[in-house]
């Protein structure tokens, strides 16, 4: 049995691992098929404090992992199929690892950005295709950008990107958008935003170096065209990675885990959540890392006050 198991290895999970390991909690971290989370698909990260020249996303995650390992954190690779939260110690069924038990759990499985599912999209993530305006907008200064989506997030990202881009084309597959009126009005009042509505994205067009356009179909005429662009921002939402929990933890209407305000505590004592799996607002590496610190401190305090195993007798 383990004192604490952390599920997920993005900035939140790795920060929690660093703190718990330094507190001699010997945490076990379960990493899935994409260790490091969304930052592993990001090229240069320029908004994480401490790196004045920026740092590559995979390098940042590798450094955080090494730091956790330095203090005694253990990593295992596997897919968590289910968690029994009905009693402590909590029991996890992990593909490739079997059954694992822990006095406390930290859930840091993140939220996966939704993609369009069109040709050449995934191949060009980090080469002109992005799902995070605040992360990557700076790299498109003076460029023409496309934002795909019709909700509030798309309007917000389009407005934000006008700080850098020479033009932002908002592409949506319907003639009407789902965004609230106030968000649509703000976008329409922005002179840098142009509109390509009732267009269905078909394919990301790219050369060997970068994205050059987005092929779309006009839903009215059926004609296909390529909208030239230097970057494509997909803003159609995120899906929190909580399916494996089987609805045992309280979530909001969109599936994000709910934590007690000012803490990382879920509705089940001994289970904590941090990072994007409980954050549908900020979704930044630094806020994820901060919440990972909170989760580790909350977890440490909980274990000290609610031990179910006499660790002094352990070899």
TrEMBL record:
Catalytic activity of the protein: [thioredoxin]-dithiol + NADP(+) = [thioredoxin]-disulfide + NADPH + H(+)
Keyword Oxidoreductase: yes
Residue span(s) of domain FAD/NAD(P)-binding: 3-292
Domain of life: Bacteria
Enzyme class: oxidoreductase
Pfam families, A to Z: Pyr_redox_2
Protein's UniProt keywords contain NADP: yes
Gene Ontology molecular function terms on file: thioredoxin-disulfide reductase (NADPH) activity
Entry's cofactor comment: Binds 1 FAD per subunit.
Keywords from the UniProt entry: Disulfide bond, FAD, Flavoprotein, NADP, Oxidoreductase, Redox-active center
PROSITE patterns in alphabetical order: PYRIDINE_REDOX_2
Annotated EC: 1.8.1.9
InterPro entries according to UniProt: FAD/NAD-bd_sf, FAD/NAD-binding_dom, Ferredoxin-NADP_redctase_2, Pyr_nucl-diS_OxRdtase_2_AS, Thioredox_Rdtase
Cofactor(s) required for function per UniProt: FAD
Family indicated by similarity: Belongs to the class-II pyridine nucleotide-disulfide oxidoreductase family.
Subunit comment: Homodimer.
Protein name as catalogued: Thioredoxin reductase
Gene source species: Paenibacillus lignilyticus
Lineage: Bacteria, Bacillati, Bacillota, Bacilli, Bacillales
